[in-house]
């Protein structure tokens, strides 16, 4: 996706959020190639990023609360202090992602791959499932933890 189109999508989505859907358009970035994109401080809460390719993207301080990131490819993405509260990261690939200070409270991580991700300082009060892998060593959490 070219930079001008991405800026317009972000502008319309921010307007959609600010007007509770009365104006603007909800961001539909399904299958979007956003490799290396600068999305720092972006307002993408409730955006649809299903299967988005975000390899090496800068998502520092991005608001992704409630976003659909199922099957998103976030390898080596910078999610420093990103807000992922309630986001759906099921089956997302986060290998090598930088998640320092990111808020993953109430996020869904079923099947997510986090091997090699930097999880230091990450806030996490998630809904673990038996297929969630939430450590740098891909150790599965026991049921009920």
Give an overview in words.
The chain is low in regular secondary structure and 145 residues long. It has one domain: Pectate Lyase C-like (3 Solenoid). The chain has one helix at residues 3-18. It starts with a helix and ends in a 127-residue tail after the last helix. Mean pLDDT is 86; it is low at 131-145.
Radius of gyration: 14 Å
Domain count, please report it. Answer: 1
Alpha-beta classification: little secondary structure
What letter string, H or E per element, gives the SSE order?
H
CATH superfamily: E3 ubiquitin-protein ligase SopA
SS elements, strand count = 0
Helix content estimate: 10-25%
Strand content: under 5%
Weakly predicted, low-confidence segments: 131-145
Mean pLDDT: 86
Biggest sheet character: none
Give a nutshell description of this structure:
By secondary structure, this protein is mostly loops. It is 11% helix and 0% strand. The protein contains 1 helix and no strands.
């Amino acid at each position: 996706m070219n930079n001008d189109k991405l800026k317009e999508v972000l502008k319309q989505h921010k307007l959609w959020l600010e007007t509770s859907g009365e104006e603007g358009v909800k961001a539909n970035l399904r299958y979007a190639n956003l490799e290396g994109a600068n999305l720092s401080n972006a307002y993408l809460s409730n955006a649809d990023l299903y299967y988005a390719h975000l390899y090496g993207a800068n998502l520092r301080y991005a608001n992704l609360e409630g976003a659909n990131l199922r099957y998103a490819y976030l390898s080596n993405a910078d999610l420093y202090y990103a807000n992922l509260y309630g986001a759906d990261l099921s089956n997302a690939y986060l290998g090598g992602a930088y998640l320092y200070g990111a808020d993953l409270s109430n996020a869904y991580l079923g099947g997510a791959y986090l091997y090699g991700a930097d999880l230091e300082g990450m806030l996490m009060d998630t809904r673990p499932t038996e297929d969630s892998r939430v450590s740098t060593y891909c150790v599965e959490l026991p049921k009920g933890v």
